[in-house]
Amino acid sequence: MTRYLMLFLYVIALTAAALAQSETDQPEKAASPVAYVYVSRPTHMDGFAASSTGRLTPVPGSPFAHISVSGMSVNKKYLFGEDGTDIFTFSIAPDGALTQVSEIDAQDYNSGAVGTIGPVRIDATGTTVYTEVYNSADRTLIESFKIEGNGDLQFLGNADSGVYSDQISLFSPSVLENNKYAYQGGDLDFDDTEFPVLLTYKRDSNGLMSAIDGEAKFPNPAPAYYTYFLDALALGPTDHLAFAVESLDYEYTPHGHDLLGTFTAASNGNLSTTSTYRNMPSTEFANVGTMSISPSGKLLAVAGDNFGCGGCGAIGFQLFHFDGSSPIKDYSGVLQPSHQFTQFGWDGANHLYALSADGFLFVYTVTPTSIKEAPGSPYSIPEAGNVIVLQK
């Protein structure tokens, strides 16, 4: 081999090595987030981008100052929140950043409105916003607002629940995935006796909600008990609901831990159940405070406390298998038993976001066969109030 040929081959080898080294030194291109996660605080809002592993990083501009809202809801373009009087609309940039674009006083659309407005809820298609108000007669009303293209809210009308706030303690209304019906759970106080009830609303094609006479009969309690007290309600991605109840004896004293059951909605909005006291699994909590069904409809997250039973229950959260109208099945024991949890969120990449009352956001990757805390979890967010997740 000639000296020139050897030199030529040596130069080629050096060039190839340099190119390889250059490519190795290049930083890995960040993957697109699977979700944006927003957490409200008294004076500002924190926004995070969630990676495919569940790790959270702040979005540009986070924390967002002078945003003080709660009861949040979100669609692909906007985040909505309320402060007890007004509903605020924030546009969501492609990178997750927030900018306020609209504000309305929800009480302006109800003559004689009193008190504060309830949490903001959105329909399954992300085109209508709903909130709860009380009129001068203390009747519970559901206000409907159409979401305009620029984020403004157009008032559509009120739905009168037919009950007074001193008669019944109601949860916020939630809309089924079929976008035809919504349900609002609570407990009716009748002659100092609490009975669980579910109010039914029909959603018109334009988004307006109206109250209807729907049927929703809860299962009978075990023979030793008189009735149930409804503690929590969660709607699934199809036509199924989950509920948590505690058993009351004939003196209306609660006993044991909350039980979990299911409802299925018929085409006319009526609810039926195959749940019985024999097949409803028991939680580890004296009172379930919040529940959430995963986007797949296969998992149910449940959180609660040990109040009201002399410390007989736990705090923390549990996971259950959910399968439509079939009985709910046990899955996990109590997770994070030193924290009380107030709210859940899910994304489409199997991540569960659990917000604790003491200001921590836990992230888990959860499937029907595995439960694993995500890298970086938990995140300390002092005074955190609410969490909402935008699936990408």
Keyphrases for this structure?
mainly beta, 5-stranded antiparallel beta sheet, 48% strand, globular, 392 residues, 31 strands
Number of strands: 31
- Describe the largest sheet: 5 strands, antiparallel
Count helical runs: 1
* Estimated structural class: mainly beta
Radius of gyration (CA) equals 25 Å
Oligomer: single chain
Estimate what percentage of residues fall within beta strands: over 45%
Low-confidence stretches: 1-29
Average pLDDT score: 87
Helix content bin: under 10%
Shape: globular
Q: Could you tell me how far the N terminus lies from the C terminus, measured between alpha carbons in angstroms?
A: 60 Å
Provide structural commentary.
The chain is mostly beta strands and 392 residues long. It is 6% helix and 48% strand. It has one helix and 31 strands. The strands form seven sheets. Strands 1, 2, 3, 4 and 31 form a five-stranded antiparallel beta sheet that branches. β26 (341-346) and β27 form a beta hairpin. The model is unreliable at 1-29 (pLDDT under 50).
